[in-house]
Automatic annotation (TrEMBL):
Descriptive protein name: AP-1 complex subunit gamma
Keywords per UniProt: Cytoplasmic vesicle, Golgi apparatus, Membrane, Protein transport, Transport
The UniProt record lists the keyword Glycosyltransferase: no
Recorded family membership: Belongs to the adaptor complexes large subunit family.
Primary subcellular site in the record, as a coarse category: membrane
One GO CC term on file: AP-1 adaptor complex
Species this chain originates from: Pundamilia nyererei
Amino acid sequence: MALPRMPAPIRLRELIRTIRTARTQAEEREMIQKECAAIRSSFREEDNTYRCRNVAKLLYMHMLGYPAHFGQLECLKLIASQKFTDKRIGYLGAMLLLDERQDVHLLMTNCIKNDLNHSTQYVQGLALCTLGCMGSSEMCRDLAGEVEKLLKTSNSYLRKKAALCAVHVIRKVPELMEMFLPATKNLLSEKNHGVLHTSVVLLTEMCERSPDMLAHFRKNEKLVPQLVRILKNLIMSGYSPEHDVSGISDPFLQVRILRLLRILGKGDDDSSEAMNDILAQVATNTETSKNVGNAILYETVLTIMDIKSESGLRVLAINILGRFLLNNDKNIRYVALTSLLKTVQTDHNAVQRHRSTIVDCLKDLDVSIKRRAMELSFALVNGNNIRGMMKELLYFLDSCDPEFKADCASGVFLAAEKYAPSKRWHIDTIMRVLTTAGSYVRDDSVPNLIQLITNSVEMHAYTVQRLYKALLDDISQQPLVQVASWCIGEYGDLLVSGQCEEEEPIQVTEDEVLDVLEGLLVSNLSTPVTRGYALTAIMKLSTRFTSVNRIKKVVSIYGSSIDVELQQRAVEYNALFKKYDHMRPALLERMPIMEKTASNGPTEIVQTNGEAEPSVVEAKHPPPVTQPTNQANDLLDLLGGNDVVPVIQTTVPTKPASAGGELLDLLGDLSLSGGPAPAPATSVPSSQPAFLLDGLTSPPLFNDIAAAGIPPMTAYNKNGLKIDFTFERANPNPNIAVITIHASNSTEADMTDFVFQAAVPKTFQLQLLSPSSNVVPTLNQGTVTQVIRVLNPQKQQLRMRIKLTYTHKGSAVQDLAEVNNFPPQSWQ
């Protein structure tokens, strides 16, 4: 008994209509699953009658995002069919459902080969499309001969498809490129625009992938004159409804030819000379009222800028970009700004003519256009227009969104440093930035401005008065407050005496100045770094003001501050008043003029965590007094392996003996009282007059300390990260100190990618072993340990610079610290 036949499946059109009636995603999913089940049943029954219809429906479901992989083999069956309608759906399914990662596609190779030699051009076209879309390298090798034969045929329909298929073959198997070289000779003589278009695409691919092919087409094939002829015919030809787009003849072909000319003319004088005239014609004859014309003009500009074109032609190209800036279309304005930014270095004067239009783009509502305009405006700044451009950019800085302020402030700093017409203008400009966008400036702005002020001797009174006024108005901008504190500490006497000649002096008393600085110490807006600046400024005023008792009181109060760095400053400054009062005037004297020195070329001040590295800031001193060798320590190179970039080596300039140049470690002195070990030295910004007496100690101070054991110490404690050192001696060699670091984290988030690096003076040798982990657990739930071995054959006092790098809450953190208070047992 024969099984009853299944009813005929619904047509594709009906399926689409049914699916569109679904009101919810679940309802649509149910319809799709039901139809897929019916299609699977039909496939299992080998129903050839409706296979084409079922695969077509399956492709529609695939387009909706539903799985349709079970129809892959059915596509191959349709391809093997003799009916054109079956082949059409089968090849379409193969292009959508198959790719070279699946072995099933190899089963198609023989079918495609047979269809490439089919008597019907439309079947051949289907095979070429499929091979050009998803052919693997194996298929391309097997079928390249058939593609090359079709490329030589006289049938335009097949030649254009064969050219695109050849592009795919070359991308998959570049070594087959030479096979298609003979067929390219006559491609550009074709009248059919489709063949011309695909031929230019093929030639472009060959030139981009092979320098030898590029040289061959330049010299042997004389490709440039042929392309120039085709492009000229397109420009000069009359209206052709078949190829016309908004009044322009075949803009797609024009764009492709311009791109190929760009490749051929780049770096080649003869080719560039041959295309100069046609590029000028395209640039002047193309209609710009429609977007089609703008696309051709943009490609023309890119070609002119890339080849060795004449200067007049380049000016014409830049003028076209200038016209683009006035276009209402935001995309056109954006590409114009981007292109001008690329050409401003080579054609600076031509771009300068459009300066006013570029500056107007700073007011655009589109943020991407605004950013490009800002970058281009900074590129246009020079010594002649610095005042006008800075006025516009400072106005932009006042009103721009927060995400622009950091980049804009950095650009203003760099431009002012390079082109400042006078030091007063330079100082005024930077102060204007600090008052309007101080919270967004780069970390190096504070030491750079301090150096600028220090070197401008004649501007000291004017600067300190301006900064004092700024402090009275606003103390929220921390970089401004830090610079102002430093200047008041250095030049407070000029402020009180009213010696300003640049503007009308203000009447300020010593108590008023101290009130302002004390206000910074207690303000909630002040960061720990700012408080350090303020305390140091108050200390420096003890040699410039008469209110010494008040200053002593303030300094002594902060000797018990919970901020370890502030506490250490206060303790050291307090010791200056008590034990070393005779040295205080010399130690707190005014900073000498600093000058920049280049270590490897014309570099600027090297910055580390917002502070200037002393390697590139040297002070001018009187002839130095030679110090003993064991005290003139080389400062530290960061070591620790070939992967670590070394910190620039620094040297400490010696000072006259009369100025108390040998710094004293007062903390070592204070520890003799039998109290606890001294507070650890934390990271010291080298641009600040910080830790004034840190680093030099007299060895006899430690003779009475018991040598029974080496006490541990805290080397670093900042932002929740604590680094403790424990010590032991190596048994075979007593000159080797073994230091174990213990890193703990008191914050609520893990510190990942943790890297500890250390460096010692050159008289020591250091070996850094691998750490136990690179993650410091949260809330002190564990520690990361790492062993350091230090060879100290000369028994010198141990000094170390450490560098810490880690990621915390998604932000990369990097910090430097100097450790100078090692227990004497660790190095004696």
